[in-house]
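Q: Convert this sequence to structure tokens.
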Amino acid sequence: MKQLRAYAQGFINSTTMYRLVAYVLAGISVVALALSAAGVLSYKPLSLLASLGIIVATSYAGSRLFAYTFSTKHNPESWLITALILFLLLIPPTEPKDYVGIALAAFIAVASKYVFAWRKRHIFNPAAAALVISGFIGFAHAGWWVATPPLLPFLLAGGGLVIWKTRRFSLAGVFFAVSLATIAVVAIMQNQPVVSTLQTAITSYPLIFLGTIMLTEPLTMPGSRRWQLAYAALVAVLAHLQIAWWLTPALALCIGNVIGFINSPMRRLNLRLRKVNQMAPNTYELLFEPLDSYTWKPGQYLELVLPHKGYDSHGTRRMFSIASTPVSGVVRLGITHGDPISSFKQALIATPPETVLHATYLGGDFTLDDSQRPIVFLAGGIGITPFRAMLQHMVETKSQHPVTLIYCVRTPEALVWSDFFALASQTIPLRVVPVVSQPDEAWRGETGYLSGDILDRAEVDVADAQFYASGPPAFVSSAKAVLRSKGVPSSHVKTDYFSGY
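A:
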């Protein structure tokens, strides 16, 4: 079990969110085709293949057409994800008019990203919007046929990977809890057996697919955790309340998307690259000039889009924590890469100055609390980026809140922004404790890995401090274990996993 978990974690960390979703959907589609060929599913293999071919071809052609028409870049992942979702939800064709209907539904899904958009940011989940429109008009219908007992194990496994990757445990938990509660209440009101109704909901309702694959789409969900939970609860109630025939799960999701639209930046963020600095081996700083007026909280992240030729499994979109504050007038990103370097980061580092790039999402809850407890930042590698923004904010506001930064890296050369931290410590009560796991002969600081002993030597008040841990998943998980061993309650710990960094 430990080996399986380690393999799954490694796979998740090496794959971007969008590519992982595409893999999951493709895997479920392949299994569905195999089960159909074996006679397990009620739909015929040729019908499913025809549906898949029409939806994929129409989605690709539509994506190319709209990208050309609106003078934007064709997204190589978005169209495929939408197409595979529609394939798993739309009733496969049996008559000639059905083929036209599913093609129109696929075209509407792609078009919704451009038509139902505000300042180049789409409002609704594309697949959900297509299901609502095609269902009302009547030329294609959502059967949600993927929600069937034979596919349930694969839905649970695939959906679990997506939740694990995105760390949307609270979002999914609220959705499933409220969904099951709503279903139980409706069953009682309709004099239906509660237990069997709940069992059917889990095996044959859109519950799992909606809550793991569609609800977690980042561009149409709220940016803050509080609103994300409200969004999940609202969609759960509307999707299962059964108060009207037209209140479908797809419409419930579209209604929830309105909350996401209101709660998130209502535009695409345009950034002009000013400079790329190499700070350490495999580590770079990128400085952007924001071309729009918008703000963010220190600790939040953005999703950067960089279409490029020959893109690899990391795709063309990546999440990066912002290492600066709005007051500075600069969007500063810090990135690191492994060997071999991904095509995305290779293209990003080689991007010429003055190039305008776009960010499609800005959000995150890894921000400073209002607590008056002493602050302890635990940074692993490039996980230092949100802390740089937080410390810059504290310098700008002349905060006198005591801060201890424990900065863990592999080699002394990997320590970045040392000059900034030195200057910051002259303005605010900041103490920096670097920890190097592979020191050279000249190193005189802490060595090894984050441990309770290092916290003790740093004189951290574990009983009263507010902890923030940021970095690769292995580091954050290790930091949480160390804090648990020191008796730190989970309410005193905030985390930021750089999964797939």
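The longest strand covers residues 269-280.
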